[in-house]
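Need residues for this backbone.
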């Protein structure tokens, strides 16, 4: 009998083999060939990057896309870059990860009750996937949402993650077309149906946000503290 883990692995294999967006595939391969000097001895992944985490996750984290020298280098979402440092530390702080760092695929990181994904699976030039590329990738997000049946809380990191999740849920019929769409803002919380997960919004922990002070550690951790409480309260009812 096929398990959720089996289905997620099959989906991951399909994502890695995807070639729907020639611009992105070319960019990933070009970055992998040129490398960054500090990673000259790395064998870059250079392909689409699947989501990862606990198949029984109650928390779903939706980011943006693999970083050129992060996920595109290591082959795992939020691994090997500054955004990863912020996210995994927060997940560890609130009991969703077994360690506070994410540096490479074999570093021992395990997520507990959490799953990490993104609306774009390839590293885009200037971190900006096109609308068409996001459309091409959205079926993968929809399928993850369908497979992760225990999710009670979704944290979207940035407006693109929010838009992608909202559209995917509408396409799945889990958000009515007449449901008023909330305005994206850091720390916002939205519940539209008791049978559906609570949505929490956060700025993305990109360097642009963290180095300018637009997003502080306290602001970021407050979102995951709220996620932890929602998961725990739901689990106890």
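Answer:
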């Amino acid at each position: 009998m096929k398990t959720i883990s089996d289905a997620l692995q099959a989906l991951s294999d399909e994502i890695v083999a995807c070639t729907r967006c020639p611009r992105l595939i070319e960019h990933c391969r070009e970055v992998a060939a040129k490398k960054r000097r500090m990673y000259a001895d790395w064998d870059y992944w250079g392909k689409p990057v699947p989501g990862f985490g606990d198949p029984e996750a109650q928390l779903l984290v939706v980011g943006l896309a693999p970083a050129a020298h992060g996920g595109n280098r290591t082959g795992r979402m939020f691994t090997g870059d500054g955004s990863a440092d912020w996210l995994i530390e927060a997940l560890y702080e609130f009991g969703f990860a077994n360690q506070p760092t994410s540096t490479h695929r074999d570093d021992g990181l395990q997520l507990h009750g959490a799953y990490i994904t993104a609306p774009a699976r390839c590293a885009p030039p200037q971190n900006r996937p096109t609308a068409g590329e996001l459309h091409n990738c959205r079926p993968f997000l929809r399928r993850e949402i369908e497979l992760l049946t225990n999710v009670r809380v979704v944290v979207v990191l940035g407006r693109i993650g929010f838009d992608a999740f909202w559209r995917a849920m509408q396409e799945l019929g889990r958000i009515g077309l007449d449901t008023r769409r909330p305005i994206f803002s850091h720390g916002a919380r939205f519940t539209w149906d008791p049978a559906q997960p609570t949505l929490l919004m956060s700025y993305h922990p990109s360097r642009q946000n963290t180095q300018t002070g637009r997003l502080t550690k306290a602001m970021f951790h407050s979102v995951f503290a709220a996620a932890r409480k929602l998961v725990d309260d739901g689990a106890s009812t």
